[in-house]
Amino acid sequence: MGNPHVLVVPYPVQGHVIPLMELAQCLAKYGIRITFVNSEYNHELLKNESALQAANIGDRIRLVSISDGLQSMEDGNQAGRASGSILRVMPGKVEELIERTNESDSDKISCIIADQSIGWALELAEKKGIRRAAFCPAAAALLVLGFSIPKLIEDGIIDENGTPTKRQKIELSASMPLMDSANFVWNCLGNMEAQKTIFGLMVRNNKSTKLTKWLLCNSAYDLEPSAFHMAPHILPIGPLLASNKLGGDSTGNFWAKDTTCLEWLDQQAPRSVIYVAFGSIASLEPSQFKELCVGLELASRPFLLVARSDRMLTDGTNGEFVEEFKDRVGNRGKIVSWAPQQEVLGRSAVGCFLSHCGWNSTIESVSNGVPLLCWPCFADQFINKSYICDVWKVGLGLDKDENDKVTREEIKNKIEQILETKEFAARALDLKEKVMNCVKEGGSSHQNFLNFVDWIKMA
């Protein structure tokens, strides 16, 4: 059928855009034309990213935008923008894009790859008679949890709205992460409206994924064997990392990366630096941010801290505190607003990663053999923490006190424990070898990907 034309539709937040952009680039290498859809807000952030230009994807991947229904970038936070785009505006705009594109016989869309969390895109593809595939940028365990919703209701663990009947810990199967019912992905989003919306989407998406034989996942068999055993129709093709292709950092970042941190890292001793980053959405309130900084100071070790100015440094008292903090730690600490994370984690100087445990951060750390200190905030991050600490045993959790704070002493003590206990580094390196074998030629993830490419190219 010539060169297939694939429409890629991500959930419109950075943590979902990055792995789908990695997948798009992998497909483009096999001669597949890509149209990558973003909301207008995200498109403006993404289109000028220098990494996209460096990757020279302009002739292979076309970036397009659709209306997100907002009057300005100041209309609500990122989660609010995503929710509005997904539920009110995006479906109609994507359908219009398909119809315009398919007016040309030479440019017709032959396949739609949609983020699994927006099942309406799969429904739309079926309506238009277009072949389709779903992609999950999170752990397979999250999908298995979603598929288990009817059983959880039947067993009385949650009610029809997803609310736990009581707080309890469950294990969906042996060797899967232990899950706290209060921290089910839809139960720890900060408000009841978001809980109802996400739970409803997950129930709907369980039906939508049945519309395609391809449910791809940014994971690997060796990371989650029990989850894949429970749901063998989920096919891992990960980890999808820039380092697996041409090297360098990921594409799809919304903010400019401060590469001076790489030069600073290259001046530090091997396995000495604490890398601290909380992703694109999570943030710490001012007093907790100060505890973090003082904990890093007390640890008396070099650290690289990512603190976006619009997330952690905008508070007036924080601004003054940060300047004093910088003076006290001097060159032992480096603070940047955004970092080239995959390149950072690939540096030999990094000894551990203090992380919010987003799935991208988790697999990037695992793929580089870096132990983790876990500070989950919401959504699937609690599942990922359980994998890290309880299943893979390549990290430690940071515990909160009676005031729901992670204290400076807790931070200092856990840093010392993870850097001074050699078993964490040894297990992390062993897991790295297993996982990276999956994406090598002949590996399970690599073969799943090649099978998917063959399917796309079928007439």
UniProtKB/TrEMBL annotation:
Pfam families: UDPGT (PF00201). It catalyses: an anthocyanidin + UDP-alpha-D-glucose + H(+) = an anthocyanidin 3-O-beta-D-glucoside + UDP. GO terms for molecular function: anthocyanidin 3-O-glucosyltransferase activity; quercetin 3-O-glucosyltransferase activity; quercetin 7-O-glucosyltransferase activity. PROSITE patterns: EF_HAND_1, UDPGT. Pathway: Pigment biosynthesis; anthocyanin biosynthesis. Keywords: Glycosyltransferase, Transferase. It comes from the Eukaryota. Its EC number is 2.4.1.-. It is an enzyme of class 2 (transferase). Belongs to the UDP-glycosyltransferase family. This is Glycosyltransferase. The lineage of its organism: Eukaryota, Viridiplantae, Streptophyta, Embryophyta, Tracheophyta.
